[in-house]
Recover the amino acids of this structure.
């Protein structure tokens, strides 16, 4: 019997862009044999973080670089800082420039002291950005398996 790795993709999406990235990550993981749970922050019941080999947190950046309240609530629900958190997010340089672009991703990476740099996607993940997602995810999975 093969023991499959488990991942949860917890995300918050208002425009649909962050959800699109979450779905791309989920599909990629499932193709690789992972058991994947999807968690919509602010809607779904709390997760049990200790049940997962990987925790992916997806967010957008709100109001001049802030992390949305639902994401902060999710962090409180988890209640501790797991060492298997990878962070991704979507943003728009048009409204905040490069300085504030996906600032919530940076904040969460720092908070969790993530082993992985955050994935930052400009608006929709379609087109050339799909390769960014695949490359980032490959690094997370490879590095995570080495540490396991």
């Amino acid at each position: 019997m093969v023991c499959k790795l488990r991942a949860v993709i917890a995300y918050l999406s208002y425009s649909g862009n962050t959800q699109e990235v979450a779905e791309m990550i989920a599909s990629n993981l499932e193709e690789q044999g992972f058991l994947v749970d999807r968690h919509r922050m602010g809607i779904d019941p709390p997760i049990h973080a200790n049940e997962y080999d990987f925790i992916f947190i997806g967010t957008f950046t709100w109001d001049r670089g802030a992390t949305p309240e639902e994401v902060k609530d999710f962090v409180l629900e988890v209640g501790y800082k797991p060492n298997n958190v990878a962070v991704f997010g979507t943003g728009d340089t048009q409204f905040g420039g490069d300085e504030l672009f996906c600032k919530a991703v940076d904040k969460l990476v720092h908070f969790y002291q993530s082993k992985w740099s955050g994935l930052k996607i400009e608006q929709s993940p379609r087109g050339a950005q799909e390769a960014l997602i695949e490359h980032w995810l490959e690094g997370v999975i490879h590095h995570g398996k080495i540490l396991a």
Notes: The first strand starts at residue 6 and ends at 11. DSSP finds five helices and five strands in the chain. The chain has one domain: 6-143. The beta strands are 6-11, 35-40, 54-60, 85-91, 119-122.
